[in-house]
Amino acid sequence: MKNIRIVILAKVPNAGFSKSRLIPLLGAEGAHALALRLLKHTVTEAVRARVGTVELCLTPDNAMLGSLKIPPTVRCSSQGSGDLGDRMARIGARVVSTGEAVILIGTDCPALDAGRLRQVAESLTLADTVLVPAVDGGYVALGLNRFDPLLFSDMAWSTDSVAFTTLCRVGQLGWTVHLLPMLHDIDRPDDLKWLPAQWTEFRPGIPA
Question: Is 87 helix (H, G, I), strand (E, B) or coil?
């Protein structure tokens, strides 16, 4: 079985800019606090999964790492330049070239917990590619045993076609794929109901 690396792609949370679509409901500070909570939760769950190395890959830089109190076992890096596809491709190529499998995740899906990350890792023993789709048409996790830039180039990111297009391109490559159940990202006010029930400060008007 290959070693696995979970790479968390995260934006540096900045007040007034983080989770901007939630600012009208939560306010700038509330949206910033939620972005931080999601980032910390994602790192915690990735470590708890115990499937391999965890790497936190930040954009635009790692200047705020000290305030996050990242566990010492988590490796930190910068995403570098380019659009999301460029950055994901560079990370995927780097990890796969070392002989490791990679699980690429973001920080917007609190339901992608340690148990689900273990499912992704287990599925990578059976398929070249593992995809956890998002309800909005994107995906919350992409596991790869192999790399090809086709999966990331000329992609209409942040649209409802990302997961479907990715699956089509996996088919073009002739790779095997395993699909796991769809999960919810937290991007818009209507998504807040999918937050953990105990995160009551971010669920205005929503019963716990």
Answer: helix
